[in-house]
Amino acid sequence: QLQLVESGGELVQPGGSLRLSCAASGFTLDYYAIGWFRQAPGKEREGVSCITRSGSSTNYADSVKGRFTISRDNAKNTVYLQMNSLKPEDTAVYYCAVVRTVQAMCGLTIAWYNYWGPGTQVTVSS
Q: Is the pLDDT at 116 greater than 90, yes or no?
């Protein structure tokens, strides 16, 4: 059974760092592009970052460029989101999602992804 599980979310002070993990089971991530999304209370879910199946290309939302870094370790079947210089507006539930693709690209469009994890809460507050 294909499953994604996020972890690493917690309460952190502004300016702090967190590393989120997304572990896959029941399938191998080698053939999938992967995205990170987030949803703040009262707001729509938005794309944060994505990485191609090869790991050679990444995309970031303007709001996180220069602060967040996505990476993947296919040997561990895991994707990471390193988040630095966190701001209160980064507070949200963070989700990872995957789509099996042959394309050498990835996007931040929610509808493109077809498997989602349950999410992990990130709270940035003093």
A: yes
